[in-house]
Amino acid sequence: MSTRAPRIEFAVGAFLLLALASLLVLALASTNGRFGFGGDTYEVTARFTNLGPLRPNAPVKVGGVAIGKVADIGLDPVKLDSVVTLAIDSRYDDLPADTSAAILTSGLLGESYIGLAPGGDPDPLKDGDEIFLTQSSVDIIQMVGKYMFSGGAAGAGNDAATGEGNATPADAGDDDVPDYLK
């Protein structure tokens, strides 16, 4: 055996340690230094009637700055509302108790996120609190459909060209109906 063998073994070992150290640095960088223990966040909940494309791990933002993420999405079996659990970074533990939450979209087709608007209450949100002022997601396709197909509101059954059809005038009909409903 030659005297070069220990040097080659040392070089291979050093290269292996360098590769493992670089993988550890890459793993820490991809998790932002957090290992998932969750000790540096507090959780609050919010109820929405329509989530749209909101998904777990979506950002929670105040004024465009990410302060947390969506930790969990569930369904209340009694009220049939979507219950969203927000994990907010503990650095932002001074959010007012009357903070409102809305499901927003980055751009026209971008990602959905929760936007928080702080209120003026001197008491802060605490772990386990619920945000009561919420605004659900807006379905753009549904809005466009309502706009496109609401053009013939003057006479629901009338023919647009002749004005004839099966619709009755508002003043014809039952006299028991108040004037403001005619």
Automatic annotation (TrEMBL):
Residues 172-182 have a biased composition (Acidic residues). Residues 158-168 have a biased composition (Low complexity). GO terms for molecular function: phospholipid binding; phospholipid transporter activity. Residues 158-182 are annotated as: Disordered. Residues 41-119 form the Mce/MlaD domain. InterPro entries: ABC_MlaD, Mce/MlaD, MlaD_Phospholipid_Transporter. Pfam families: MlaD (PF02470). PANTHER family: INTERMEMBRANE PHOSPHOLIPID TRANSPORT SYSTEM BINDING PROTEIN MLAD (PTHR33371:SF4), INTERMEMBRANE PHOSPHOLIPID TRANSPORT SYSTEM BINDING PROTEIN MLAD-RELATED (PTHR33371). This is Outer membrane lipid asymmetry maintenance protein MlaD. It comes from Marilutibacter penaei. The gene is mlaD.
